[in-house]
Amino acid sequence: MRMHSGLGGRVDWTFVAAVASLVAAGTLAMLSAASTTIYYSAILQKHFIALTLGAILFTLTVAFNYQIFQDQSKCVYGVALFILIAVLVVGTTSRGHRAWLRFAGFSFQPAEFARVLTVLVLADLLDRRARQARDVSTVLMALAVAAPVMFLILKQPDYSTALTFLPMITGMLFCAGADLFHLLLVFGYGVLTLSVPLVYTFCQTRFPGAAAGSLPVLVLATSKMGWATLAVVVCLGALSAMAWRMATWMRLQVKPHLFLAVPVILSGSLLTGVALNRQLKSYQRNRFVAFVAPHTDVQGAAYNVIQSKVAIGSGGAWGKGLFSGTQSKLGFLPERHTDFIFANLGEEMGFLGTSLILGLYMVVLWRIVTAARQARDRYGYLVCAGLASMFAFVMALNIGMCVGLMPVAGIPLPLISYGGSSLVINLWSLGIVANIYARRYALL
Amino acid sequence: MNQVSVPRERLELLWWVIAATGALLGLRLFQLQVLDVVEYRLAAERNRSQIIPQTAPRGRIYDGIGVPLATNQPAFTLIFIPPGEGHIQQDLEPLARELSRQLGRDPIALQETLQTAVREESAVRLAENLPTRAMFQLSELKTIYPGVELIVEARRYYPYGRFASHLLGFMGKMSPREWRELKPKGYRADARVGKMGLEKTFETELSGRDGGIRMEVDAQGRLKRVLETIPWETGSNIHLTIDAAVQKAADDAVRKTASGRGAAVAVDPRTGAILALSSQPDFDPNAFLSTDPEEVKRTVAELPEFNNAISGAYPPGSIFKPIVGLAALSGGRVKPDDDFWCPGYYESGGRIFQCWEHKGHKRISWLMGLAHSCDVYFYQVGLKAGAAAIETFARDFGLGAATQIPLKGEKSGHLFGPETRRKSKKGWYDGDTLNLSIGQGELTVTPLQMAMVAAALSNRGTVWRPHYTQKIVYADGRPDYVQKPERMSLVRAPGAAWDQVQEALQLVVSSGTGVGARVPGLLVAGKTGTAQNPHGDDHAWFISYAARRGEPASIAIAVLIENGGHGGAVAAPVAKKMILARFGLPDPDAEREVRTAARAALAAPRLPSLRPAPAGTPH
User: Fold this and answer.
1) Within a domain: residue A71?
2) At a CB cut-off of 8 Å and minimum separation 6, what does A17 contact?
3) pTM score
4) pLDDT per residue over B494-518, tens digit each?
5) In Å, how far is B26's CA from the nearest CA of chain A?
6) Which residue of chain B has the CA closest to A406?
7) Which range marks the domain in which residue B269 is found?
8) Contact B384/B398 with Cβ under 8 angstroms?
9) Are B390 and B467 members of one domain?
10) Cβ of residue B341 closer than 8 Å to a chain A Cβ
């Protein structure tokens, strides 16, 4: 049997080239964006160490059989939980997040690592439950497996990263063949939960002087854990019971569990949404404000988004040239080498640069989907589907934030933003994809 | 090959969702970076640059021979641009001490300002509108302390102060309405604009485009570097027809009269060009630009807005008599040597009409009638000529209609006569004719109109449209605008009638009521007037024109002194000063005044003696 001899021929070189180009573009953007910070040399040092580490991990991962992760699934899950607990116990706090593990002079951010591990664990679960794919129990089990990981990340607290789990899980369940109605419920739950603070903020900023008894005031009352919330939950239950009675009386062919599921999902999402709303920190609340009413507070929360749009827009078609962006070099653009690096890139490299980056992302995603299509087993297929959903959502969220289409979320742009652990983990996860593709013929 | 059963169509669907998301982001990037690039470029430029503006010089205003009437003074503004690095921190204290001495401000406050500027790395304006003498001392600091910069700005300056102030106008802060209108034209919020007179009328031409120092700043407002120095663009210059000497003589003379209120207008009878347009009380336009806000407030509160020369409508009184005479003589109804009898009054329709000379002028004809302004003579002449003829002549002379001079607030006055009465469906009586004949009744005129009448009397009938612009020299290289004389109307009368009228007018000055305006060596003609004023003392009038012998008249004048009393005593000397100024002759009165003042200064201080008023002053 050929072990390594034939592997080179099966590696997806298009994919590798696209990933390398993204990393190169990211390095270039980072070199420029970080040049104004006083930690420039330290940042460069860390970046190149992470880059080397990531490249090694990528190569090693391509060489090893990915199925080992399925075999050691329990172990993988254990590692995910362990590092997240460890970070809560012995982690370092920075900017209000207990998100860093420090050892031997390196600091490591485990949330993204845990996210990829969750993809591996879920892929194993969904693979083993292939026969019960359409069963609601599969959906519930998948959520149950992901829930502790998400909970630990929320404890840091890192809402943005936890948020990225939802589309990732939904994408995996979708590709695993879950019942669309179940997915709709799960998705609806998530969307409704998030919409509670959004609607709350909307009513608060747009109708500040609404009269008592008017709709905005009722919404505001409902959004605070109290009698109004309880009344809405009770009403939902009552309405559902009435609908059920009506349906039976009219002998409609409707599944009875619908009348239980819908009110449970609605009131459940309302309650979690209300809980989330109460938990929001002021800067997180301001992100909602900035999204709902971007021009209410130009110097405050909306400042970042406006400056980001100005940076990207002023770049024009060809850009102002590397190291020449006024928005980023004069400090108008915030977080310019981390979360808003895409805006820095847009300013200095113009539409040419941004469309190139976007194009490279689409190539990478296309190759991940291709790897999924050609994977030799269901596990590989699911891993690729999960990673594709994850990368696509994170990319859309970050770029969408930079161009003002999405609310501000503190997540880095994969492979581009500065962040050692993020780069290493992303390269490692893409290595798994390359491995799945390379082993598409079930010979090894 | 792939025997595992997976829902591949779902993967394809997922891919389409991802591709659609990518396409959406691509479109958004296209929108921001290609479609809306201009808007965002501007926003980025606004972000990064800060301008220390420099006020551009306004266009100058010159008189007819190029004497500057409104110009600009360099005003020095002291700014402090913190130099990048170095040992400036310890220099701040001596610098603050030095500046406080020069500027008269609290040294501690100044030092704090400087320290803030250094800490924030931003430029500050330390003082504005510094006087020239402060500049020399401060420019020495510039060499000692880095970062101290003097920038030159232009500030409006009126070299003559209280001079033609109603004509020139003044500058001031914009009203909210003006700000709304001018903001799109690139005006700064602190810009001053013309608020009155020519400054307002020619705001567009006079205002230049401000320059400044454009600096790059970072998000914290810290100064990074100077991007460029934007040069200013000067405004367009305006050359007026005003003769500064005549204007000054008029302003000073009217101001020195007893009431101190009135107007004096001088025009060139050959073109209708205004040589002087004076209205008293006036103001000093420089006071509006004072650095002391209290002074500005006070000046604005006390501003005499009313321009008597164009907005004041007064009964003309006897200065209307030349028009009556011309109407009568040119119609042939009255011969110059027709004798009339003046017993001191005239009876008409059971009413008694007085002559100003209650003793009566006895037997009197044209020349003496006008020279002594005999009312009874003109009652009879007016009746002979007919009110309709007088009205027609007065209308031809431009009375009862605005001259359309491009200045705000011009009044048209009021002409009355049989025709006007017919229009308003009222009757006309002989008593009205008598009132009209001596320029009383409902008749009102402006000093400007009467100056044009005086000009028409001198040039035999040409009534010009008054103008004050000679030319506008545009700063942007457009060809100059040159004002051409425009004839408003022509008074038609036989040459013999003009001769008679002009001879009589000369007689008024040489030996009649207007001797106060006599200038040896010049041919001066004129007519005094004392208009009855229901609200108080009579208004004093004098119209006049003067020429070198053998030349056409080069100045025509109308002087009005409110509540001044007798025209010959009060208004004629004002005209005389203007005539002297026009012909460049020394003013003996002024010399006498100087000598008196010198004697008074030498002698022991004592109360000024009241000089007796000149006796026997007729109309």
Assistant:
1) no
2) none
3) 0.63
4) 999 999 999 999 999 998 888 888 9
5) 6
6) B25
7) 249-290+308-475+483-599
8) no
9) yes
10) no
